[in-house]
Amino acid sequence: MFNKILIANRGEIALRIIRTCKEMGIKTVAIYSKADAESLHVRFADEAVCIGPAASSESYLNIPRIMAAVEITNSDAIHPGYGFLAENAGFAEICRQSGVKFIGPTPEMINKMGDKVTAKETMIKAGVPVVPGSDGLLKDVKQGIKIANSIGYPVILKATAGGGGKGMRIVTKDDEFEDAWHSARKEAKASFTNDGIYVEKYVEEPRHIEFQIIGDQHGNVIHLSERDCSIQRRHQKLVEESPSPFMTPELREEMGNAAVKAGKSINYEGVGTIEFLVDKHRNFYFMEMNTRIQVEHPVTEEVIDHDLIKEQIKVAAGIAITGKNYYPTMHAMECRINAEDVMNNFRPSPGKITSFHSPKGHGVRVDTHVYAGYSVPPYYDSMIAKLICRAQTREDCIKKMQRALDEFIIEGIKTTVPFHKALMKNEAFRAGDFNTGFMNTFDMNDCNE
């Protein structure tokens, strides 16, 4: 087992990792930018190293400075969390060459699944269903239009190095293709320094359902069941839950087997997520794989009663996993609490938190790095907390979430709490009748408190 782990991340996920490390008797090192000096992850780590100014490029994405922090603290492993360098194969390779364990998959696995076109080709070979589309990157508009006509409109253009909804455009007819092509490439280039674009059939009324998997260094891969992430805005998830209200035992078995098959096809090591689109007829298609821990991992932890960060660290240390899949025994739901003004198009709302009270009680969990007096910086992702509730049934889980949201007090900045309160009252949501287009019809006026 590792002696000391450096957490190459910030905020709530860094604090989440620190907590598990402490329970496992592992020393921790926090890194932080000058903007994050007052964050709780800095306070609760055994050691903390400032690695630069606020800009991510000069701090959390600065590999030489991170590796220098590893060296001066004598850390023997790095946990990348999610975002930043978590799926950077180059960083994983530098860790390997430096004799420091990267807590995650190998660089080869990241490369295979991080590029969406390569991942799709890998899944086709493994026999996992994929959405019809181009065999690789599009060469030009003419080729794209030809493929779109062969698979039928609507189609979606996607950045091969994409994530978070960047570099995506929906096209419904030939006349729209060229403008969408140039727009998607421009955004992809700016976001990922890679303007490669491919095209897929746009699955209408889809559910976004993902399967948590974990693989070890001994060839074992299991799944930990599903999460429904269909409530999202501009491809950014807002609420996640497990089990999915759309799921049937037969579909779960079929999708779970496909997720395990996907992991085994690359001898996957670590925790990861196989993301699927599921149409209204319950046909499912591989979308992408996240080769890291995810924001919504607490949902799975609550329904199977396992610490996924602990399992991730154990696998990285060479410990074998059990050979069985896990299934939900409870219902859990996560609301992402962002520093955003929901009545102004979810505009970021950084600033000082003047009052902060988090809800408590049976089946209520809050993962956060903020507190009263903390100033939310404007430089990073706007998520400041995750509220997770667990109950015996989905109906009871929603009731518990409503109660918890009523107790959640954050003053001084705008947050997404009013949106979540309105969502929990929404009849379609409560009935489980929703898909990824849900926010297009949601009445934001319901968020007025």
List key phrases describing it.
alpha+beta, Rossmann fold, D-amino Acid Aminotransferase, Chain A, domain 1, eight-stranded antiparallel beta sheet, globular
Task: Please write out the topology.
Blueprint: E1 4-7, H1 11-23, E2 27-33, H2 40-44, E3 47-52, H3 63-73, E4 77-79, H4 89-97, E5 101-102, H5 107-114, H6 116-126, H7 141-151, E6 155-159, E7 169-171, H8 174-192, E8 197-201, E9 207-215, E10 221-233, E11 236-242, H9 249-265, E12 270-278, E13 284-290, H10 297-304, H11 308-316, E14 331-338, E15 340-341, E16 347-348, E17 351-352, E18 355-357, E19 364-368, E20 375-376, E21 383-391, H12 394-407, E22 409-411, H13 417-425, H14 427-430
Parallel strand pairs: 1-2, 1-4, 2-3, 4-5
Antiparallel strand pairs: 6-7, 6-8, 9-10, 9-12, 10-11, 11-14, 12-13, 14-21, 15-16, 17-20, 18-22, 19-21
Helix pairs in contact: 4-5, 5-6, 7-8, 12-13
In a nutshell, what does this entry contain?
This protein is an alpha+beta fold. It has 3 domains: 4-91, Rossmann fold, CATH 3.40.50; 132-201, 2-Layer Sandwich (Dna Ligase, domain 1), CATH 3.30.1490; 207-447, D-amino Acid Aminotransferase, Chain A, domain 1 (2-Layer Sandwich). 33% of the residues lie in helices and 26% in strands.
